[in-house]
Amino acid sequence: MEAERERHEENCVLSPGTKSELCKDSDCWSEEEGAVVLKRKMSLHSCETCGSEEARYRCPRCMKYSCSLPCVKKHKAAIQCSGVRDKAAFVSLSKFDEMTLLSDYRFLEDVARTYDCAARDVLLHKPTSYKFLGFMKNRARKCKIDLKILPVGFKKRRENSTFFCQKQKRFCWHLKLIFPQSHAEYMAKRVPDDRTLHEILKKYISLKESDPVIRQRLKAYILSQSGVSVFMKAESEKHSSARWYELDSEKSLFENLKNKTIVEYPTLHVVLKDFRNDFLGVGQETSDTRSPALPALSQNEEEEIEEGEIRDST
Ligand SMILES: [Zn+2]
Ligand SMILES: [Zn+2]
């Protein structure tokens, strides 16, 4: 309430002691009091728009004097003035007082509020229509993929840039690539599904063809002689611990995704072969001596964890 009233005053009461005729609100200056001071203060200036009348208002943005509503409107149109005080205008340190501080504080509050409102607006976050999503799911079904679409608001839904290319009759996937041994994650966009995993990974872990910045980050992979295995989490499996599909690097994405459930987009875990035992395959049971809920760690595995290895606990 308070802030609203202040903003209102800001826009209609122009300098102390002026009365705004634009504003019929009782919140604004009282008639008599204002008029007297007004005469004294403003008579020095004439309207900068028509030049003939005595100025009664001063624009909080451009500081131009005006005599009446038509003149205020005219000046706004002529110099593209919004008539709203410029909250980000330069203020020299010597003129920086408590009011300026308060104004800055309110400005930041406004920004936070605007951002929050935008984040809550469901319509703004609906980049893809339901029709399009239905079409995608249908297409996926034809490729024997169970594509699950999350409700609006989920991060994965927002990120997903997957689309079906009508011309080439194939999916161009949004991919998340996780390299646990380097603690790195990358997003790949528009990856055609006829590419083999080997081709897709070239950009990341090929000694010659990878991007230099990525190569530096994924040093562990570049230097390793063992090669990599690619895993994808089995979404449909109901186990206390995750089960994984091992994908075939020589086969295309299309072949690899067949008969699998994908939530929004595929997330591929690219793992050095030395660590591949951490990924339990689908149908593979935890060994008899371990209970699935609390797997006992062998000496060997404990060492691996100490080396900072990421484990998916879900
Ligand atoms: Zn005028
Ligand atoms: Zn103005």
UniProtKB/TrEMBL annotation:
Chain residue ranges for the region called Disordered: 284-314
Gene Ontology BP annotations: box C/D snoRNP assembly; maturation of LSU-rRNA from tricistronic rRNA transcript (SSU-rRNA, 5.8S rRNA, LSU-rRNA); snoRNA localization
GO cellular component terms attached to this protein's record: nucleus; pre-snoRNP complex
All copies of domain HIT-type, residue ranges: 47-81
Origin: domain of life: Eukaryota
Record keyword Cell cycle present: no
InterPro entries: BCD1 (IPR051639), BCD1_alpha/beta (IPR057721), Znf_HIT (IPR007529)
Pfam family, one: BCD1
Keywords tagged on the record: Isopeptide bond, Metal-binding, Phosphoprotein, Ribosome biogenesis, Ubl conjugation, Zinc, Zinc-finger
GO MF, one annotated term: zinc ion binding
DNA damage as UniProt keyword: no
Assembly, per entry: Interacts with FBL, SNU13, NOP58, NUFIP1, RUVBL1, RUVBL2 and TAF9. Interacts (via HIT-type zinc finger) with the RUVBL1/RUVBL2 complex in the presence of ADP.
Alphabetized PANTHER family for the sequence: BOX C_D SNORNA PROTEIN 1, BOX C_D SNORNA PROTEIN 1-RELATED
Biological role: Required for box C/D snoRNAs accumulation involved in snoRNA processing, snoRNA transport to the nucleolus and ribosome biogenesis.
Family: Belongs to the BCD1 family.
Protein name (database record): Box C/D snoRNA protein 1
Taxonomic lineage of the native organism: Eukaryota, Metazoa, Chordata, Craniata, Vertebrata
